[in-house]
Amino acid sequence: MPVINIALDDLNRMLKDKLSAADFASIIPKIGADPDEINDSEAIVEFFPDRPDLLSTEGVARALRAFTEQNLGLIEYEVSPPTTQIFVSQEVMEIRPSISGGIVRGVTLDDISIRCIMELQEKLHVTLGRKRKKVSIGIHDLSKLEGPFNYDTCSPHEPAFVPLQKDYEMTPQEILEEHPKGIEYAHLLSEFNRYPIIKDSNDEVASMPPIINGALTTITEDTTDILIDVTGLDDNAVESCVNIVAAALVERGGEIEQLEIKFPSENKIVPSMEPKVHEIENDYLIKLLGFDPGQFVIFKAFRKCGMEPELKGDKWSVKVPAYRADILHPIDLLEEVSIGIGYDEFPESLPTETLFGKSLKSRKLESNCREIMLGLGFQEVVTLTLTSKKMLHEYTQRENDNETEVANPVTEDYHLLRSSILPNLLELLKNNKHRELPQQVFEIGQIVKMHTNVHSLAWMQIASKNTFSQARTISDSISLRLQISGETKECEDPLFIPGRCIETRSGSILLKYGEIHPFTLEKFELGYPVIGGEIHW
Prior knowledge:
Its cofactor is Mg(2+). With 537 residues, the chain is α+β, with helices and mostly antiparallel strands. It is built from 16 helices and 27 strands.
C-alpha cells in the first residue's frame, strides 16, 4: 500500500484546529489509514490504495477538516473559465489519446509543499497511473510558458531540450537511452517511432509524456501559477488525476482555471470540479449496517466524509466531490457512512443463527482424489499456474490450444496460464534428477482451457523401469475409486508415445494416460522412462 510522509506542522497550517501528534495518531486510523510511525514532528502513514485523494498532506488535511467537524460537508470549488487552449493532433491520438489538464493560480509554495506535490504526483503514477502506463502527470511553472499549447508527436531526434535532473539538452532518443527516467519508462514507447510531446506557442518543451518534464518549467518556491497536464490511455483515470492534483493545489491557496482541449473532432473544457451524484436506498443502507442509527446520524456521517447528502423519499442522493475517484457503487456509500459513524460506535450483538459451512462439490472431489493418490504412494506437489509456450508446446510437441496469455508478463518464462499440469510435473522431475528413484508425484489444481477454469488431477512416475501396463494399473485404480466409466479408446497426443496413450470420457470428465514420448524426456533432460496421466473435470 502507498506510504506518505506528513510533516505535522505543515498539516496544521491547513487545519482550523491544530492536532497534536497524539490526536493525529488516534484519528488517522478511523479514515482508512495504517500509521507506521508518528512522532512530534512527522508521521509516516500507509493508506489503502482505493483512496488516491489521500496520497498527499493536502488530501489528508482536507479529510481531517471534515472528519473532525472543522468543515463539514462538500467543498464547492470555484472554477474560472478558460483563457487558453491545448491543441491535440491526430497523430498523438494513435499513441496516447487521453489528455486533460488545468491551471491553478495564486499558489503559495515552500520547500515542504513542493515535496508534498511531487510525492502526490509519483504516488498517483504508481497507483492510478499503473506506473505511468495508464496515466502520467506533468506539473509546470506556468510563468515559463506561453499559451496556447500543442500536444503533438515528435521524431526520436528532435526537438532537443533540457529534461529534469539534467543541465544540458538531450534528444528524445537520448533521453530514452541515457536518462534514468527514460531508461525506466522507455518500454512504454518502444512500439512507436514517434513520441508524444507538449510544447507552448514558442515551441518550448513542457513535457515528453509519459517519460519526463522539461527542466524549464521546474516548480520552485517562486512559482505562483501552475499548469497541470495529464495524459494517458483511460479517460476516467486521467480525469480523476487532474481533479486530485487541482484540489490539492487549492489547499495551498490556489484558484482553478479551466483549459480548452481542442481535439481533432471535438472540444472539451477541463477540469470539471462539479460533484457527482450517487444514490443508495435507505432500507438497503440500514440492512447492511445491521442497525438503524437514524436519519440525522446518517446525514452527519456523510458530511464527515466530505459529502453532501439529501434524503428523497426512501433514497439518499449524495453529492460526491470530484476528487473522490473511489466511489463507484452504493456499497461504497455504505462504507463512507460506516466511517462517518465510526466502527467503534456500532452496537454489539450476538449472532441470531447458528450456521455450519459445507464443502463445495468440487472440494469434495479434490479431497477424494488426494486420498486416492496418497493411498497409491504418490507425493503431493504444488507448481505454478503460470508457464510458457516453451513448456506447453515446444517441449511437448502439443499444438496451441488457445491458451490465455498474461498482458504484461514479468519474464517470458511466465506469460501463459497453463492448460495442462503434466509439463509442470515434468519440470519438477527435471529439477529433482539428483534424488533417488522411483519418484511418484501428483498435483490437484486448476488449469485454464478456452479462457475457463477447469479442475485437474495430474500424476507422474519416473523409475528405472516403467511400462504402459503400470500406467494402466494406476489409472484403473483411480477410475474405480472415482467411478469413472465410459468409452475407452486409443488417442493421439504428442506428449505420449504413439499407441501407448489411452483416453476415457465419462460425461464432463476426461481421463488421459500413457507413456511420455522420448522427445519430451530429452527436452526435460530425463534419462529414465516416465508414465503419467491427467483428469479434467
